[in-house]
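Sat 14:20. Reprocessing the chain from the morning session after the first attempt stalled halfway. Input below, unchanged.
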Amino acid sequence: MTTRSFLRRSFHHPCRLRQPRLSLLAFAVGAALLSGCQFPGGGRVDELNNLRGPTQDLTVELREGTNMAAAPSPDGRLIVFSAQGALWIIPREGGQARRITDWRVEPTAPVWSPDGRRIAFQNYAPEGNFHIWTISPDGRNLREHTAGPFDDREPAWLPDGSGLVFSSDRSGDGQYKIWRVDVNGGAPAQVTTGPGAESNPVVSPDGTRLAYVDGANVVTAPMGGGAPTVVAPGTAPAWTPDGSALVYQDAARQLVVGGAAVTTDEDVFPFPVRFLPDGRFLYTADGHIRIRDASGANPNDVAFRAELRLRRPDIRDGKDRNFDNVRPRQVKGISAPVLSPDGRSIAFVALNDVWTMRIGEAPVRLTDDPDRDVNPQWTANGQAVYFSYERNNAGQLAVDQVDVATRARTRLAAIPGRSMALPKLSPDGGRIAYTTLSGQLEIWNRAAGTFEVILPSVSTQVSTPQWTPDGQRIIVVDNERINNRFREGYNKLRVIDLATRTGTFYAVAPAPRQIAERDEGAAVLSPDGTRVAFIMDSRLYVIPVGPDGAPTGEARRVTEDIADLPSWGGDSRTILYKSAERVRTVRVDGSGTREIPVRLEYRQAVPEGRTVIRAGALWDGVASSLRQNVDIVIQGNRIVSVGPQTEHPAGVRVIDASGLTVMPGLIETHLHPLTLYQGGQFGQVAQLMLSYGITTAQSVGGPLHQSVEMREALEAGNLLGPRLFVSPPLWEGNRSSTTSRVPCARRSSPSSRSPRPSA
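Finished this time. Tokens:
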């Protein structure tokens, strides 16, 4: 892959910066994140995030895009294209682009109406779904034509301009089908039925036939109904102007005209070609808008320039990361707190260790080592805490128990080469339910020393298993898939019958509302088995359930404040939860909210004294050549000098790297460290990263409280690994990816929508 191609795919677009001038990579990222800050026309910038402190206004000029879609007007004079979450119009010959949508819509897949008076597109609507919208070419008359908790995509006009066909899952049967809607009003109507994942519809010029994609094949069918005919494997079909044939993309995503591929090794974007009045067709590939003649020959690009005006924080003077702060700091990363059966103590993870705390007293450390400790639970008698632990199991998670009074430690379960995450003892204590990294539910029989697979999950993560009091069922939060096209669904209670190995999903509220996440504290069953506490809309809710685990009534909100990580006291009337950095308890009726202070501090671990790295060569990332035979002098955690090798006073630690080349630490920009430890091997992977020179990592999409806990543990030296920056949780909208770690509020990643056409 060329550098140019890499930049386009990784950072969404190459760009040329107007004053003030910054680096290409920095601005590619900045533009990708902040492109929604410009109103069409005018020069002002919209401040979506209420930036505080110094800011700077910047202009970025785009000349290429990733996954942008383009379409010509019926008269061939104009081209509309989508880039950076907006629609732009340029003359057919190319040139300066005019933006016609603002940040309030996020359009793609535009297509012009036959009369040229409207442009239809799919819009990622504020409620968190793709819907079909239209707009006038001058940016006026923005109108939504479909709505509801459905996914509506890939609009194409009927030849007479009276309506649109599109793909959707609004049939509610798990199938993705073709629908149509009248642009002058009325409810959408289903066009195709039966099983199948159908997409990319387009109507023939005479209006009699429909072409679309079904699974991996391009097919055609009569508009009035009838059996489809398979054309060929491929996607993104388009009718030729006379309706006699189709142009489409083959399995290698190359354009096929007349049955033969006419492109070779182009990065063709996943949209149909659009025909010009003179018979040529337009498409997007390799970051460009491109035109070929009717036979697919003679390609030429349409150059464009699109300006984004952005307001960004002025961080040229840097930000204080507390790198030199060695004073005591309050621990904020209180992870997985659980209330004891008697309601008088809590157990939690902080600084990579398990702690208990009598409410009102100081925390007591139960473990103290650099191996990963996660997901503590109380035994039924409240005398011990058990948890997943990384040591002495080939890097995989085993289950250990610590007696609170004596600190005696016992290994409850371990499986070579297999992790046991989110453990939960059965009511009689004889079994341990746990999940694997893939979300598979398994049970360990303590007497036999064996495990059995109970039921695979739908998603790659489920919550801590919850036993019903009779030990015959387990409740988890899993993701029930909505349709057969995308790996997304709603987080629901899933009750698993251990005798029949069957699972039943139960919604806690009408769609699109759902349980907020599938992390360890997503939902917990009360000890008496009558209620489930869970998080929805960032608030704590309780729903009544019957002996079989099925809900028997409506969910009721318990708290007004932000809530996470609920756990029950043994009385089944008290719930402990996290509210931002605070730990609180509340009665099940919403009364008696109580603050639980956790007075725990840590200090940043800073090496003592002076260390010298004696390097044979140094690449500093600035000079064009290596520096030979240098001493890198480190005082505490700062490099204080780099210079020629010299003698140093006695007592100075010298690291001999005379046969090596030293370079600045690398930064890993996309990491899921919690995924690593959930499946074990965290210590191994973290050390491997350090051995490859990765000294800083960015955690994305991880559980918030655990991410902060890990960051503090690394700062305190209680966990070995790269310096960690965290930006959780993952924002996905009302549909959660079955592979995500913490679904929350708005999808902003193509991982859950595959592929998400946005330049």
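The helical segments are 3-11, 24-34, 673-678, 682-691, 704-716.
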